[in-house]
Amino acid sequence: MSQNNPTKDGKKRTNIKYGLDVGVVLKEDQGTDYITYGKVQKILTNSPTHPHGIKVRLNSGEVGRVKEIL
User: Which of 20, 2, 4 is nearest to 66 (CA)?
Assistant: First the structure.
């Protein structure tokens, strides 16, 4: 992920859209570098930003915080 591209920031809710391809860190993978990829089914974080990434549910049913927007 490029740090210079603000539209790729998974910490801002406005950058996350339904159906978007994203990489998330699942709860059980926190503290590791393991990223799970999928499409956004639902946005779970209500606040406009979150320091650890916006929480989403993927089409697979998995829930995690967005680290990458593809």
Answer: 20
Q: Which two tokens stand for residue 62?
A: 């998995």
Residues 6+ apart with CB under 8 A from 31: none
Residue 64 lies in domain: 6-69
pLDDT, tens only, 42-60: 999 999 999 999 999 999 9
Number of domains forming the structure of the chain: 1
Give the model confidence (pLDDT) of 22-39 as tens digits: 999 999 998 888 999 999
pTM above 0.90?
Answer: no
The CATH number that applies at residue 51 is 2.30.30
